[in-house]
Design brief:
Number of strands: 5
Distance between the termini: 43 Å
Structural class: alpha/beta
Strand content: 5-15%
Strand order of the largest sheet: 1-2-3-4-5
Order of helices and strands: HHHEEEHEEHHHHHHHHHH
Largest sheet: 5 strands, mixed
Mean pLDDT: 84
Low-confidence stretches: 1-5
Number of helices: 14
């Protein structure tokens, strides 16, 4: 599995979420870790597979990213498991119910278009890693007191929420049979905390390799390394210091991934926007001078100067 080196600096969380949860063993761990036992017992997870279908409208893409898996129940009935990454750090509030209802309507519309005899059972898993505490709870609770005789008019659907920030590190580390997801949960929880990344670089980056194909292990390693490189404020010197503490094989791979990221980013940038990369970096690091940035990205100082002119207030 080759990880594409196109993690967006505008939406790096989305790109990382999509890359790691497209990996079937990771998705399996997520489902097994968070679905209640009775629900798991009703599913035949040996049939779980990634689908090419997506159900986000243009409006909903502002708030979510989605990945869709399909599987069967133990009675061989179809089920969709939709993984949704919430973008807005809890600011969505009660609107989440409207948004997810619209999302599920999109799933039903697809069933109608495909002339399926029944709507497909859909399990939405809402993945949240914002710092603001947020628990949407059951939809029925948003209606307040309702007479029992009228309760049937309350719309209802369950949301399975994975709230990374609400989990302690000890809880994440103690999760049974979750050897890949542990890294990913810690990465999402602490990715913007430079000092945590310094102290736990190995724990976040080195995935357990037991029974894991080499290409999958390498893909997870590369994607995680590049994500941390983008979302932290650590500079090239800091990153290389941490990389040199890795076991020799992982050190070589990290350096290779970094060099390939820079090289391919520059090549693509000529065609589709290295300016965006530099602009995002300049905004995040306003105290860096042109020569420091040029050395960091292995670019010319003149190119950095040119991009700096496009910063807000510089036109």
């Amino acid at each position: 599995m080759k990880i594409p080196f196109d993690i967006s600096l505008d939406r790096p969380h989305d790109a990382y979420f999509e890359q790691v949860f497209k990996v079937l063993p990771v998705a399996l761990e997520l489902v097994r870790a968070f679905l209640p036992p009775k629900q798991l017992a009703a599913l035949n997870l040996q049939t779980l597979q990634l689908s090419s279908e997506r159900y986000l409208s243009d409006e909903l893409r502002e708030f979510y990213s989605d990945l869709v898996y399909t599987c069967e129940t133990v009675q061989a009935e179809p089920v969709r498991i939709c993984l949704l990454l919430e973008h807005k750090s809890g600011a969505t509030g009660r609107r989440v119910y409207v948004q997810l209802a619209n999302y599920l309507s999109g799933v039903q519309e697809e069933d109608i278009r495909q002339k399926r005899p029944f709507f497909t059972l859909t399990i939405p898993i809402l993945f949240y890693h914002g710092k603001v505490p947020w628990n949407p709870g059951p939809l029925r609770e948003q209606y307040g007191p309702v007479p029992v005789s009228l309760a049937g008019y309350i719309p209802h659907f369950d949301i399975l929420q994975v709230d990374v920030q609400a989990m302690s590190d000890e809880e994440i580390r103690s999760m049974r049979d979750v050897v890949l997801l542990r890294n990913i949960l810690l990465v999402f929880k602490h990715a913007r905390e430079d000092e945590y990344v310094r102290r736990h670089f190995h724990e976040m980056l080195i995935f357990v390799r037991e029974n894991l194909p080499e290409d999958i292990w390498l893909g997870l390693f590369q994607a995680t390394f590049l994500y941390l490189q983008i979302v932290t404020s650590l500079n090239k010197h800091d990153i290389m210091e941490l990389v040199e503490t890795l076991p020799p094989q992982e050190e070589r791979r990290a350096k290779s991934a970094y060099e390939q990221f820079i090289e391919e980013g520059i090549e693509k940038g000529i065609e589709k926007g290295i300016e965006k990369v530099l602009l995002a970096f300049l905004k995040k690091n306003p105290n860096w001078n042109d020569r420091q940035i040029a050395e960091y990205f292995d670019l010319s100082v003149s190119m950095v100067k040119k991009v700096r002119l496009h910063l807000p207030g510089k036109e």
